[in-house]
Design the sequence.
């Protein structure tokens, strides 16, 4: 009986340490490919929107969404969709890393050209926490594996960061 009680208490304790963030749905304009980011806690951002108990983000064509939503962290439940001009949704697969015995990683993909989501669940902070204009963000990439490298070039990253800086009013020190 004591063993069962100990196991029960351990299960309750471990379960209370796990935080599950709100389920989230991302609606992406059909045909968009590139980096996409949501910048949280923005007073002038898009208000929170919910459908069927899920937080919904309607991504703009430029891939940068300013949101009034509070940033959340924990176990994630994300769904991504391409949305056409009539509102029809098409589900996008989420690609994960596969870890090899030699310490390298590779994406688990069946079709190199199929568009899907990379870097799902990536979060961070633009600027330092105490800097004016700093902002919590979430980032993902929409792409086929055959184009994925183009979204990691220095030129692309700089252009994307410049767009973000314009949106949040931050000036990064070089």
Sequence:
């Amino acid at each position: 009986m004591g063993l069962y009680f100990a196991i029960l208490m351990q299960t309750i304790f471990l379960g209370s340490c796990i935080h599950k963030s709100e389920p989230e749905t991302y609606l992406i304009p059909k045909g968009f490919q590139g980096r996409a980011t949501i910048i949280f806690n923005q007073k002038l951002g898009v208000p929170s929107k919910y459908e069927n108990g899920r937080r919904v983000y309607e991504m703009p064509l430029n891939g940068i969404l300013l949101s009034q939503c509070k940033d959340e962290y924990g176990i994630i439940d994300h769904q991504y969709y391409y949305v056409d001009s009539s509102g029809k949704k098409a589900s996008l697969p989420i690609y994960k890393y596969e870890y090899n015995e030699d310490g390298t990683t590779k994406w688990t993909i069946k079709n190199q050209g199929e568009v899907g989501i990379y870097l799902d669940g990536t979060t961070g902070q633009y600027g330092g926490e105490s800097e004016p204009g700093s902002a919590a963000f979430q980032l993902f990439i929409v792409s086929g594996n055959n184009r994925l490298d183009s979204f990691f070039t220095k030129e692309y990253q700089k252009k994307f960061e410049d767009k973000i800086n314009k949106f949040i009013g931050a000036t990064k020190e070089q």
Summary: The CA atoms of residues 158 and 164 lie 10 Å apart. The mean pLDDT is 83. Residues 2-17 form the longest helix (16 residues).
